[in-house]
Amino acid sequence: MTIIAVDDEKLALDGCISAVKKAKPGIEVNGFQNGNDAIEFAKKNKTDIAFLDVEMRSIGGIELATKLQEINPSVNIIFVTGYSEYMKEAFSLYASGYIMKPVTAAKVTDALDHLRYPVKESVDYRLKVITFGNFEVFDKNGIPVDFTYSRTKELLAVLIDANGAMRTFDQIMEDLWMDEDDAGSHSSYLRNLFADMQKVFAELDCSSALIRRRGEACIDRNFFKCDYFDFLEGKDDSLFSGEYMSQYSWAEMTLGRLMTLSDEI
To answer: Mean per-residue pLDDT for 192-207?
Structure first.
């Protein structure tokens, strides 16, 4: 999905971009203060959605919308303005939406939910993770991911459970070997698990999904499609049915938090 935002006032442009990113976490928004720059971009990149300020000095939003539609007739035009008198003229161009300033994530979400030309989002994640029920990992084609060691899969589960936050190696070993008195004695084995994970991630073209620093590690959430992440972000309240990583006893603490959160929804 390619989105542009055009406003000749930098503060307003930054606000619009911020609102779009809050509405669509992880999405890239190409911002322009000059309409002609936006036109040049659209000539080289198929633009799906354009947030356009109506009143601009170089080229007005109405004129810019017309030029963008000439380049791509299915571009979704969403006008942004502080003046409602432009609404009739804007919709005569078959605009997808009209947002009154200030732009907020809620207004953007509503506009994106009612696009004139629905945009099919491409799969940009590399791994799909299921946490509700048993923990399972698939590549983007739906094929189960095989690791050399079964513990590598559990290591990934621990990092997914951390929701992108860094975990120290000691914390990770305490989870993986929670039934042992000396969990820290497995540091050499843990290095093997990380090596196994990195090897598999490299084969799946997502080497950067694993982030390691001295004595700690985490995952980059942008590489994962995960029901746990979606539930925490409120994208689908029906995802959770009372089970979470059922094969791992250390996951019971998170399960308790999820049960509480589910009751509050």
So the answer is: 95
